[in-house]
C-alpha cells in the first residue's frame, strides 16, 4: 500500500475543501502543520465538486482547487466533477 | 440551436489539441530538430495525456487571483516592517541562500521549459511546458519581490544574480540546471520535470516554507506556498512525461532509467544545501532534514517508484547509500560553511546549546558521535576569541561541485574520494554517483566551470581571496560574510529591538 | 510586553538591489525593474548545449542583431508576470461575459448562413496562424537574450495560445459545440487555395533560425497585415452584413493588438537606434518578409474583402515601419 496525499494552504476556503474531503474519504488522515493542512490516504483520494459546493454553499469549479493547493502525490485524474489521486499497486 | 454541453476533456481537445497540422511546405523535422538525437522514440504524440486541461483564459483568471493575494501580503509586509516579526536575525541567512542559490534556478527552469515548449513535436506536451515556463518566471519574479524588502534591511541579498554566476558554492545549483538545459529536451524533462519537480522540490518548498511560517516570515511562506500551487501542475506534468516516454517505446526504458539514476543522485547532492538550511538555519524548527527526507523522499518517492515498477523502472541507483546519508549531510555541509564563513555571502554561527540538544535528539545515531564534539570544540575556541576560518580553498567534486567534505557511509570519519583519468587529466569526485555521471559523459563534465580552479588560474581577479570576494564576487567584505556575531545585520537587529 | 520602535532606527540600508542601483541609482525601484533587469545569467556557463554545441546556453549570437545592452528593450507596458496576468485577467473577464452573453442570447441565430460560412472560412482558420505565432514567440523566449525581451516574448506567446483558443470557441459557438466548424476551418487551412500561401509562410517562419528575424516576420509584418485585414476590414464587412455581434467575440483581439503593437514598435525603435547595422538588417528582413507576406496574403485578402484590401493593410504596415525609423 502507498500513500497518496494532498496539501492545502491553511485558510478559510481550504477548511471547506478539507471538510468535503473528509466526508468523501472516510479513511483519510488530516494533519495540521504550520500554514498548511496535509491529507493522506492509502492509494486513493478524491475531491468532489458536489461535496465542496455543499460545504461552501456556492458554485465551485474543480480548477479552483489549484488556488489553495500546495502539493500532491499520486496519479492525477481531473475532470469537471472531481479530482482523484491514485497509486497503482 | 441548443448547443450540447462540452466536458472539460473534449473542450480542451477541441480548443488546443487540434491546432497542429501536418507540414506540406517545409520539413517538419527542421522545425522541431532536437527530438531524435537522444535516442528516445516517440511513435505517436497524440497519445499524450493532458494532466490538467487549463485553457489560457482560466490560467489568467486563477493566476491573477493568486498574484493579487500574494502582492497584497508583500505590500502589507513592507508597510508594517514585517522583518521585525521574524524569530531571529539568523533566519534571514536562509533567505540569502534561497535568493542567490534557488531563485536563479527558477529562472533557468523558465528558460528550459521555454526550450521544450518550443521543441516538442506534440502540441499537448508543448503547451504544458509553456505553462510551466511562464509559471517558473512567476516564481523567480515573486521571489525577487518577496525579498525586496529584506534586501533593504539586511546584507547579502543585494547582488544575487551577479553572485549566482560567480560565487564558489553557487556553482553547485547553477551547474545542476546548466547540466539539465545543456542536455536534450527529453533528458531535461526527466531531470527537471520529473526528478526535480516530483520528488525534490517538495523537500525544498513544503517543509522549508512551513519553517518560514514558524519563524514569522509571512512574505516567504506566502510566496513559497503560492509557488507550490503551480508546482502541483508541474509535478503532474513530470509524471505524465515519464509515463508517456515509457509507454511510447520499450527502447526508452533503459534510457529513462539511466537518466533517473543520474538526476536523483545529482538532486540529492544539490539538496545538501537545503538540508543545512532546515537543520541549522531555521531558528525555530519544524522538522529535521532526516524527517523531511523520510516523508518526501522515502515515502512519497517510494510510492512513486512502486507505481512505475509496472514499466520496468526501479528505484534510482544508490538509494541505499542515500538512505544512510540523511543522517550526515546537513552536519557536514554546515561545517563546511562554518569553516569557510569568511568566503560565504551569508553569516554562519555555532548552533546554540538548545539547538545542539535538538540535533542530538533528532540524530541519535550520528550527531553526538561524529558532529557534536566539533561544535563543542568550536565553542571553546570562540570563547577564547579564536573563532577560526579555514584559509585553504576547498577541492571541488568535478560533477556536483560541492567541496570534498562528504564521508564514507561505512566509516563516517573518512572523507569519500574518487577519481577518473580522462585524456591524461585527473578528475576528482565526492562519490561513486558523481564519478559514474562523469564517466558516462566525460566530454560534458570536463567543461565544468569549477570556481576554485578558476580562482587558481587567475580568472576571478585576486591575488588574495579577499580581492576575489570584493572585486569579482562584489561582496561587501566585512558585512556580507563572516560570523553573525558582530555583523552589521546583528547590530541593526539589536538596535531595532532595543537590546544593547 | 510592547516594544516601541523608533522610526529613525528603521532606515533602510539600501533602496534596491545592487544591479538595479548600478543602472538607475540608489533610489526605490519599481517592481518591473527589480523583476526584469539582469535576471538572466550572462557568464560562466558550465557546459555547451548538446543540441547547439557552437554556442553557450545563453548566447547573444543567436541573432545577427547586436546590442550593447539587451536590457535596452524596456517594455513600455512594464509587464512582469504579476502585472501581465492581472491585465489579461481583466481582459478575459470582459471576453468571458461577452461570450456568455452571445451564447445565452443565442446571437448566432441572427447571422445568415452565408456570413456564417464566411466566418468559418476566413476567421476560424486563423487559430492555426495564432498557433504558429505561439511557437514563434516561444522561439524568441527560448533563444533570445535578456529578460526584458524574452519575458515579453513569452507573454506574447501565451497570448497567442489564448487567442487560438478564443478563435476555436467562435467555431464552437457557430457549430453548437459539435466541432464541425473547426474541422471545416482546418480543411480550409490545409486545402483551400486561398490559405496555402499563408500556411506555407507560417511553415517557413517555423524553420527560420534567427529569433529576432522570426519575431519581426511574425509580430510586425504578418501581425500588422492580418490585424488590419481581419480585425478592421473583415470586422467592418461583418458589420455591414448584420453580423456585428461577432465583434463581441473578437474584442479581446482588438484590444490585444493595440497593447502589443505598442510594445513591438518600441522594440523596433530601440534596435534601430542602437546602430546603422541593425537598421540595415531590419530593413532587409522587413523587405523580404513584407514581400513574401504580400504575396501569400493576396488571394486570401481578395477573396475575403476585395481587390483593394491588401494595399490598405500594406500602407498601414509601411507607416509603422517608417515611424520606427527603418526607412
Ligand atoms: Fe518553480
Ligand atoms: Fe516548478
Ligand atoms: Zn560530487
From TrEMBL, chain A:
GO molecular function, one term: monooxygenase activity
Pfam families, alphabetized: MmoB_DmpM
Family: Belongs to the TmoD/XamoD family.
Protein name: MmoB/DmpM family protein
Organism superkingdom: Bacteria
InterPro entries referenced in this protein's UniProt entry, alphabetically: MOase_MmoB_DmpM (IPR003454), mOase_MmoB_DmpM_sf (IPR036889)
UniProtKB/TrEMBL annotation, chain B:
InterPro entries referenced in this protein's UniProt entry, alphabetically: Ferritin-like_SF (IPR009078), Phenol_Hydrox (IPR003430), RNR-like (IPR012348), YHS_dom (IPR007029)
GO molecular function: monooxygenase activity
Keyword line: Monooxygenase, Oxidoreductase
Domain YHS: 410-449
Protein name, per record: YHS domain-containing protein
Protein source organism: Marinobacterium marinum
TrEMBL record, chain C:
Keywords: Monooxygenase, Oxidoreductase
GO molecular function, one term: oxidoreductase activity, acting on paired donors, with incorporation or reduction of molecular oxygen, NAD(P)H as one donor, and incorporation of one atom of oxygen
Pfam families linked: Phenol_Hydrox
InterPro entries, sorted: Ferritin-like_SF (IPR009078), MP_mOase_hydro (IPR012078), Phenol_Hydrox (IPR003430), RNR-like (IPR012348)
Protein's UniProt name: Phenol hydroxylase
Organism: Marinobacterium marinum
Amino acid at each position: 500500500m502507498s500513500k497518496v496525499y494532498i496539501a492545502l494552504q491553511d485558510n478559510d476556503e481550504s477548511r471547506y475543501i478539507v471538510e468535503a474531503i473528509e466526508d468523501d474519504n472516510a479513511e483519510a488522515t488530516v494533519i495540521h502543520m504550520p500554514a498548511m493542512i496535509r491529507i493522506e490516504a492509502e492509494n486513493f483520494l478524491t475531491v468532489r465538486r458536489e461535496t465542496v459546493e455543499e460545504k461552501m454553499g456556492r458554485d465551485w469549479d474543480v480548477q479552483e482547487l489549484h488556488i489553495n493547493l500546495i502539493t500532491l502525490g499520486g496519479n492525477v485524474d481531473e475532470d469537471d466533477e472531481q479530482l482523484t489521486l491514485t497509486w497503482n499497486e | 440551436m441548443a448547443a450540447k454541453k462540452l466536458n472539460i476533456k473534449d473542450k480542451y481537445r477541441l480548443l488546443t489539441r487540434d491546432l497542429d497540422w501536418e507540414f506540406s511546405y517545409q520539413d517538419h523535422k527542421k522545425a522541431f530538430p532536437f527530438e531524435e538525437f537522444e535516442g528516445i522514440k516517440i511513435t505517436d504524440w497524440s497519445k499524450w495525456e493532458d494532466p490538467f486541461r487549463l485553457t489560457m483564459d482560466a490560467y489568467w483568471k486563477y493566476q491573477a487571483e493568486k498574484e493579487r493575494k500574494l502582492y497584497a501580503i508583500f505590500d502589507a509586509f513592507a508597510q508594517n516592517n514585517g522583518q521585525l516579526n521574524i524569530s531571529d536575525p539568523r533566519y534571514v541567512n536562509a533567505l540569502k541562500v534561497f535568493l542567490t542559490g534557488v531563485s536563479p534556478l527558477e529562472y533557468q527552469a523558465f528558460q528550459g521549459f521555454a526550450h521544450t515548449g518550443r521543441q516538442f513535436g506534440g502540441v499537448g506536451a508543448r503547451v504544458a511546458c509553456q505553462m510551466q515556463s511562464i509559471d517558473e518566471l512567476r516564481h523567480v519574479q515573486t521571489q525577487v519581490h518577496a525579498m525586496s524588502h529584506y534586501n533593504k534591511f539586511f546584507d547579502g541579498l543585494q547582488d544575487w544574480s551577479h553572485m549566482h554566476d560567480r560565487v564558489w558554492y553557487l556553482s553547485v545549483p547553477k551547474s545542476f540546471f546548466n547540466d539539465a538545459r545543456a542536455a536534450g529536451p527529453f533528458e531535461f524533462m526527466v531531470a527537471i520535470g520529473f526528478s526535480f519537480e516530483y520528488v525534490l522540490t517538495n523537500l525544498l518548498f513544503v517543509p522549508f516554507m512551513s519553517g518560514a511560517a514558524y519563524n514569522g516570515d509571512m512574505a516567504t511562506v506566502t510566496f513559497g506556498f503560492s509557488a507550490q500551487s503551480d508546482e502541483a501542475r508541474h509535478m503532474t506534468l513530470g509524471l505524465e512525461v515519464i509515463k508517456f516516454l515509457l509507454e511510447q517505446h520499450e527502447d526508452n526504458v533503459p534510457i529513462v532509467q539511466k537518466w533517473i539514476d543520474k538526476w536523483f543522485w545529482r538532486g540529492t547532492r544539490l539538496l545538501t544545501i537545503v538540508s543545512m538550511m532546515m537543520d541549522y538555519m531555521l531558528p525555530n524548527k519544524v522538522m529535521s532534514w532526516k524527517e523531511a527526507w523520510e516523508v518526501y523522499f522515502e515515502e512519497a518517492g517510494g510510492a512513486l517508484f512502486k507505481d512505475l515498477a509496472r514499466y520496468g523502472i526501479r528505484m534510482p541507483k544508490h538509494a541505499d547509500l542515500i538512505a544512510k546519508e540523511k543522517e550526515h549531510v546537513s552536519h557536514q555541509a554546515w561545517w563546511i560553511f562554518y569553516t569557510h564563513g569568511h568566503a560565504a555571502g551569508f553569516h554562519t554561527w555555532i548552533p546554540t546549546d538548545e539547538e545542539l540538544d535538538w540535533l542530538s535528539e533528532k540524530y541519535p545515531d550520528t550527531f553526538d558521535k561524529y558532529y557534536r564534539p566539533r561544535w563543542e570544540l568550536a565553542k571553546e575556541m570562540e570563547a577564547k576569541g579564536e573563532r577560526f576560518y579555514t584559509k585553504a580553498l576547498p577541492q571541488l567534486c568535478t560533477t556536483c561541485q560541492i567541496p570534498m567534505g562528504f564521508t564514507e557511509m561505512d566509516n563516517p570519519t573518512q572523507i569519500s574520494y574518487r577519481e577518473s583519468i580522462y585524456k591524461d587529466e585527473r578528475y576528482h569526485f565526492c562519490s561513486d554517483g558523481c564519478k559514474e555521471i562523469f564517466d558516462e559523459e566525460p566530454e560534458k563534465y570536463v567543461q565544468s566551470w569549477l570556481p576554485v580552479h578558476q580562482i587558481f588560474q587567475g580568472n576571478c581577479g585576486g591575488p588574495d581571496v579577499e580581492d576575489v570576494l570584493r572585486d569579482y564576487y562584489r561582496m561587501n567584505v566585512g558585512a556580507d560574510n563572516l560570523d553573525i556575531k558582530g555583523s552589521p545585520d546583528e547590530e541593526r537587529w539589536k538596535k531595532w529591538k532595543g537590546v544593547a | 510586553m510592547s516594544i516601541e520602535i523608533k522610526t529613525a532606527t528603521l532606515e533602510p540600508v539600501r533602496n534596491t538591489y545592487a544591479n538595479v542601483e548600478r543602472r538607475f541609482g540608489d533610489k526605490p525601484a519599481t517592481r518591473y525593474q527589480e523583476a526584469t533587469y539582469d535576471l538572466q545569467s550572462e557568464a560562466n556557463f558550465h557546459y555547451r548545449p548538446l543540441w547547439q554545441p557552437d554556442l553557450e546556453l545563453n548566447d547573444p549570437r543567436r541573432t545577427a542583431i547586436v546590442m550593447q545592452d539587451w536590457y535596452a528593450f524596456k517594455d513600455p507596458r512594464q509587464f512582469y508576470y504579476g502585472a501581465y496576468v492581472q491585465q489579461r485577467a481583466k481582459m478575459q473577464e470582459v471576453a468571458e461575459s461577452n461570450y456568455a452573453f452571445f451564447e445565452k442570447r443565442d446571437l448566432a441565430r441572427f447571422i445568415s448562413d452565408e456570413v456564417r460560412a464566411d466566418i468559418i472560412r476566413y476567421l476560424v482558420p486563423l487559430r492555426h496562424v495564432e498557433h504558429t505565432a505561439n511557437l514563434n514567440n516561444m522561439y524568441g523566449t527560448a533563444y533570445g537574450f535578456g529578460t526584458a525581451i524574452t519575458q515579453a516574448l513569452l507573454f506574447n506567446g501565451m497570448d497567442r495560445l489564448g487567442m487560438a483558443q478564443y478563435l476555436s470557441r467562435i467555431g464552437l459557438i457557430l457549430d453548437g459545440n459539435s466541432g464541425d466548424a473547426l474541422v471545416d476551418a482546418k480543411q480550409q487551412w490545409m486545402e483551400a487555395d486561398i490559405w496555402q500561401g499563408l500556411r506555407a509562410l507560417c511553415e517557413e517562419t517555423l524553420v527560420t533560425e534567427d529569433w529576432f528575424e522570426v519575431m519581426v516576420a511574425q509580430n510586425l509584418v504578418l501581425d500588422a497585415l492580418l490585424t488590419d485585414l481581419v480585425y478592421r476590414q473583415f470586422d467592418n464587412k461583418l458589420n455591414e452584413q448584420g453580423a456585428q455581434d461577432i465583434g463581441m467575440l473578437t474584442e479581446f483581439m482588438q484590444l490585444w493588438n493595440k497593447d502589443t503593437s505598442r510594445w513591438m514598435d518600441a522594440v523596433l525603435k530601440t534596435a534601430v537606434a542602437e546602430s546603422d547595422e541593425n537598421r540595415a538588417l531590419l530593413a532587409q528582413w522587413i523587405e523580404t518578409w513584407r514581400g513574401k507576406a504580400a504575396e501569400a496574403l493576396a488571394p486570401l485578402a481578395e477573396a475575403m474583402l476585395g481587390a483593394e484590401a491588401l494595399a490598405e493593410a500594406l500602407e498601414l504596415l509601411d507607416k509603422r515601419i517608417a515611424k520606427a525609423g527603418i526607412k
